[in-house]
């Protein structure tokens, strides 16, 4: 990425900290909410209330106790969170299938086409870290841990809803399985899980004067709403009729592959909490409006989708290590090239 910027004569790392939504997060970290609006050409009023608070709050905290600028702090947090997310994904994979599959799972997640966006001043890496460790908490039966981390994930992104639903449904399944004989901490974890997401949505609603619908109005001004896939179908039609360079066909391929991987995850009989989490993320990506080029980024935290492929890669490594190395090397090279293109060359929304 830095090399691509250098070859094009751009600042080496500035676009890693100041790309698209990053500027809004950094402004919130510096000034708080309610100080930045943008009026679109069609008259929609976009406000900073569309952005959840935990990431800018952490940026503010880090700049307070260190000499880092907000942009530098955002990148440090994103990088640290990406590492924590990788450890969480490894823990999930190791718990279910052992070290080989866990290693392959993290390796595949690291070379996803949009994995470079885990290193910029965006929220995906922080969300993925909290989600991964929350899911691990469910798998280990640590319900208070799982619920608390799910609540924090709900303060990072709108898709924190997916973690809350996964934890809650896993708790219901456990209650049914045990016929109601469950510890109090399970109920506490299930109650905690949605509080972060729900709390911020209601707070935005009260600020707009409409507690129940205010947040949806704020998101609608950004062109972000759940339209049951109507926007995705319009995008597909436009892409087939007019084409779309490299980024948009790649986004379509990534989303379609994610749906296929979800089907394989279900056939693999993965734990319910992983299936629900990944399924809700796919549902939000497919059913939500907005730029299609951003949908692969929305799916970055859905690491459980890679479990079937990780199991296959682990088997390949045992049986045909040379072929596995060549395959992984090709995936890594493609990921680096595509990531550099998306950030340094393409002008499509991230």
Protein model, in words:
This protein has 350 residues and is an all-alpha fold. The chain has one domain (2-344). The protein has 18 helices and 2 strands. It has a two-stranded antiparallel sheet with strand order 1-2. A hairpin with a 5-residue loop joins β1 (37-39) and β2 (45-47). The protein starts with a helix and ends in a 6-residue tail after the last helix.
Proportion of residues in extended strands: under 5%
Domain unit count = 1
Number of strands: 2
Average pLDDT metric = 88
List unreliable stretches of 5+ residues.
1-8
- Identify the strand order in the major beta sheet: 1-2
Report how far the terminal alpha carbons are from each other: 15 Å
In angstroms, what is the radius of gyration?
20 Å
Structural category: mainly alpha
The number of helical runs is 18
Q: Give the proportion of residues in helices.
A: 55-70%
Shape: globular
Helix and strand string, N-terminal first? Answer: HHHEEHHHHHHHHHHHHHHH
The biggest beta sheet reads: 2 strands, antiparallel
Keywords: Endoplasmic reticulum, Glycosyltransferase, GPI-anchor biosynthesis, Membrane, Transferase, Transmembrane, Transmembrane helix
Pathway: Glycolipid biosynthesis; glycosylphosphatidylinositol-anchor biosynthesis
Membrane topology: Multi-pass membrane protein
Protein name: Glycosyltransferase RgtA/B/C/D-like domain-containing protein
């Amino acid at each position: 990425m830095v090399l691509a910027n250098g070859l094009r004569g751009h600042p080496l790392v500035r676009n890693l900290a100041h790309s698209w939504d990053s500027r809004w997060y950094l402004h919130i970290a510096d000034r708080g909410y309610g100080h930045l609006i943008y009026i679109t050409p069609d008259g929609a009023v976009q406000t900073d209330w569309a952005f959840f608070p935990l990431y800018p709050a952490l940026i503010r905290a880090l700049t307070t106790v260190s000499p880092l600028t907000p942009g530098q702090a955002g990148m440090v947090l994103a990088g640290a969170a990406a590492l924590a997310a990788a450890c969480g994904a490894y823990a999930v994979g190791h718990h279910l299938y052992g070290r080989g599959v866990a290693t392959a799972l993290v390796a595949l997640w690291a070379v996803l086409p949009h994995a470079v966006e885990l290193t910029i001043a965006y929220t995906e890496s922080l969300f993925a870290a909290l989600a991964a460790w929350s899911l691990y908490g469910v798998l280990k039966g640590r319900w208070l841990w799982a619920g608390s981390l799910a609540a924090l994930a709900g303060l990072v992104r709108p898709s924190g809803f997916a973690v809350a639903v996964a934890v809650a449904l896993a708790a219901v399944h456990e209650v049914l399985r045990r016929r109601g004989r469950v510890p109090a901490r399970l109920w506490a974890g299930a109650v905690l899980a949605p509080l972060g997401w729900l709390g911020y949505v209601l707070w935005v609603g009260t600020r707009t004067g409409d507690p129940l619908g205010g947040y949806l109005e704020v998101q609608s001004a950004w062109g972000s709403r759940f339209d049951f896939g109507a926007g995705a179908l319009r995008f597909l039609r436009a892409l087939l009729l007019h084409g779309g360079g490299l980024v948009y066909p790649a986004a379509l391929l990534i989303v379609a592959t994610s749906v296929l991987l979800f089907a394989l995850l279900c056939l693999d009989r993965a734990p319910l909490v992983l299936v629900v989490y990944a399924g809700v993320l796919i549902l939000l990506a497919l059913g939500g409006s907005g730029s299609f080029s951003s949908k692969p980024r929305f799916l970055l935290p859905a690491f459980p989708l890679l479990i079937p492929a990780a199991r296959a890669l682990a088997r390949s490594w045992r049986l045909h290590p040379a072929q596995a190395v060549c395959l992984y090397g090709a995936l890594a090279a493609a990921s680096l090239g595509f990531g550099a293109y998306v950030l340094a060359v393409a002008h499509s929304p991230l």
